[in-house]
Model the fold of this input.
Amino acid sequence: MAQLSLTPLRFTPDEIAEVVDLYASNPEYCRAAGEYDPEAVPADKVEADLREEAGTEGCEVLLARNEGGRIVGLLCLLDRHPTDGHPWIGLLLVHGDLHRQRIGRRLAGLVEDRYRREGREGVRLAVLENTPASLAFWSSLGWHEIDRRTDRQYGRPCVVMHKQLA
Done:
């Protein structure tokens, strides 16, 4: 099985272009989230949004690369949620050409392993209610619904999920 590496987004023009391609390769997610038009993902807005994310205390924006150096995914992690103190996965996005190749499963496992090594008891995330495939994906990995509420930034209906690590 090919190795995956996680590295911080450096915001180079080439990386931003690859991230824009990553978003554009996921038109269903773009439409469901309502943040970007999948037909014309604006590089400047993607960069600004990710810079804001990376500049938030305790947040990391990570690129997942395959052995050849190609970006295969994007992760946004929050070390400690201000409300519940748990680490959160803010986003896990796999390139659309690579869906159903277990990359999302492997990336989720890397995140879980990281927080387990840090002695964290659990990790959380929110799935948009209008993305049933995402809900099925996370459920298949042993995540459980613990709440339903709107997200803090856009007010979209979400399913809050938790995975016990300890």
Observations:
- Strands lie at 5-8, 59-65, 71-78, 88-94, 122-128, 144-150, 157-164.
